[in-house]
Amino acid sequence: MAILVDKNTRVVVQGITGKTGAFHSEISIKLGTNVVAGVSPGKGGQQFLNVPVFDTVERAVKQAGPIGASVIFVPAPGAFEAIAEAAESGIKLIVVITEGLPVADMVKAKKMLAGRDIALVGPNCPGILVPGQCRLGIIPGTLTPPGPIGVVSRSGTLTYEAAHQIAQAGLGISTVVGIGGDPVIGTDFIRVLSLFDQDPQTEAVLMIGEIGGPMEEEAAIFWKERLKKTKPLYAFIAGQTAPPGKRMGHAGALIEGKRDSAAAKIEALKSHGVAVIDALTAMGRVVQTSSQTSLKA
Amino acid sequence: MNLFEYQAKSLLKQHGLPVGRSVLIKTKKDLALIKEGLFRSGYVVKAQVLAGGRGKAGGVKIVKRADEARALAGQMLGSNIETYQTAGAAVKIEAVLIAEKVAIEQEFYFAVTLSRKRGQAVILVSSAGGTEVEAANAGALREIPIDPWTGVRNHALREAAVETLNIPAPWINNFIEFGRKAARIYAEGEFSLLEINPLALTPKGFLAVDAKINLEENALFRQPDSLKFSEENQKLLPALERKAKDLGVSYIPIGGRIGCLVNGAGLAMATMDLIASHGQKPANFLDVGGGANVDQVKGAFEILLADKRLSAIFVNIFGGIMRCDLIAQALVEADKKTNLKVPLVARLLGNNVDQAREILSKARLTQVEVHDDLEKAVVSVCQKVHGNGDSGR
Asked: Of B117-131, B348-362, B379-393, where does mean pLDDT reach its minimum?
């Protein structure tokens, strides 16, 4: 079991023939991902990485059969159209790896999808990885074996670091979901936490947040008030040394108000009973300790 | 990227929002534009800097006569100013705006920005305008949502005018018109922030006494006017920050002694935090990104090698996608141009790490120490700075 996707998920890659799309699709296929179609306007009819390429997602669905998820590598100027195209072709999970999407486009995309049964993950995210089964995006697939820890994160390489430490600690991961570092994103911590809550494989969750926005605190409140709390929630917050008013690499990593700082978030999370990991180097160790305790209990 | 007040006002004026009369002084020669009797009501002399808080720092002065305004503007131009938003460094005043003093009956805080909680843009208003709004708590701000397709609703602006701002009845429709225009300018320009503080109600109507615009970098590719402003203002950045912008890497100096070079924004922030938790202060945020090429990483190393305030450099590369040998090669090339004079501790893990170690040992960079364990690496770099008798603070 995993969340959102598994080895059977039939995947289309939008932008499969582009440099990044091609590079990562090849790796994803090697990792076992069931890529059944690629989309690249003007290249319909070709085969690429032994996958049929179509001009539109609509044609891909018609000719390759039902598709469960799309991964979008389309460059920022065309990304909104690519999201709309996937949604209108009936795809229920849309993962946007593209970085640099204008905020206005994401605001529109969110409005467009509101109230529809479609999950949008990203943009500006590393995607989703189910170790040993499926990879939608760019998360290195060999860092960690399958296991009991669910990981959800706003950051890419910090997540790889976490996955590495979890593996070093002798554990594995059920699913990694990179939700992205932009100020407006499709899927938030809350949504992923509730999916992990229902997933039998996931025994504990590591949430990796950073400065900027209200998402971490909202997630902690949701976890405290709405979930059963049978699964421990660990959190790491990056940006304790970040100065206010500066965008720290991610468009969304910006301290605009008092509650945006790492210190304020850590305090809020602790007040809601979330176990906050203080040191970057302690992620694996802390999660390991907990898993031993919960196994004993 | 922020715009100067004069740039923001010119944009607002161009789109039909009243900003009052003013003249811009960029050189000593321009001082002659402040003619006798230019403004009868008085002159507001305003230093143009890309940071807030200038009023409290002496960057805004009101005088009665043109000769006084000329003298003040002459003093300000080219001098340095330090505000609570300039991060402990003084910035040069590149221009001075001379604005006509207006009779203000009421003043408000007015802004259009993104609400991350709502995932859409909002107009923010408060009855406490001017410098007071910074002291006022955020709860006093009223949010008026802007729909991305249909814009802002009249009734919502009217409700804010009546309930939050106490705008006199004859002026309410003018406020609604002002709000709608501002929302449209924000959306069409794709700004991150359009702030008018204070928004003044004068006997002649509403007027933007000050204006601040923050551009959204991601939208610049389809906003040619903003791109022009952005390129213009980029030239005024300190040399190392300008170089980083040109390279397309994120670099933010914060004043410590251990320079950092990391791949990925989250890991870069967390690495700085880790250094701080070991009692030293990181000098900068520097994210070379996941897909950087040798030239970009080499340029990033050159930025650190050029920073004379550094006592050591810490490199943290988690090679998931990035190749460690590329980092090593870039370091060797950067060292050829500017010699590495301080100790450099690198934590390299992942793709091609063995090749990276080989490149570094062949280059005989004796100041370079490579680890794969992050904890050991950070302890080592902090000891090196500490060993120099330098607390790093």
From this structure: B379-393
State yes or no: pLDDT of B9 exceeds 60.
Answer: yes
Catalytic residues of B: 109, 195
CATH architecture of B239-387: 3-Layer(aba) Sandwich (3.40)
In a domain, A162, yes or no: yes
Assess whether pLDDT exceeds 60 at residue B137.
Answer: no
Q: Is residue A131 part of a domain?
A: no
Please write the tens of the pLDDT for every residue from A24-45.
Answer: 999 999 999 999 999 999 999 9
DSSP string, B72-111: HHHHHTT-EE--TTSTTS-EE--EEEEEE----SEEEEEE
Measured between CA atoms, the residue of chain A closest to residue B262 is A157
**Domain that residue A294 falls in:** 143-297
Which H or E run contains B175? helix B172-189
Among the partner residues A106, A208, A243, nearest to B87 by beta-carbon distance: A243
Kindly state whether A103 is in contact with chain B, defined as any CB-CB distance less than 8 angstroms.
Answer: yes
A39 touches chain B (CB under 8 A): no
Considering only CB atoms, A257 lies closest to which of B114, B138, B266, namely: B138
Q: Which two tokens stand for residue A204?
A: 């504990």
| A102 vs B contacts (CB less than 8 Å) | 190, 216, 218-219, 222
Q: In this model, does residue A169 exceed pLDDT 50? A: yes
Is residue B51 very low, low, confident or very high in pLDDT (cuts 50, 70, 90)? confident
Domain topology for B21-101: Dna Ligase; domain 1 (3.30.1490)
- What integer best gives the mean pLDDT of chain A? 94
Given an 8 Å threshold on Cβ–Cβ distance, is A246 in contact with B219?
A: no
**Cα(A193)–Cα(A208) distance, rounded to whole angstroms?**
12
Q: What is the pLDDT of residues A202-217, one digit of tens each?
A: 999 999 999 999 999 9
Q: Tell me, yes or no, if A250 is annotated catalytic.
A: yes
B263: burial class by Cβ within 10 Å (0-12, 13-18, 19+)?
Answer: buried
Strand intervals (E) in A93-232: 93-96, 119-121, 127-130, 134-137, 146-153, 173-178, 204-210
Dihedral angle computed from the Cα positions of residues A106, A57, A129 and B267, in that order, rounded to the nearest 10 degrees: -40
Residues on chain A touching B116 (C-beta within 8 angstroms): 183-184, 212-215, 252
Segment A228-233 shows an average pLDDT of 85
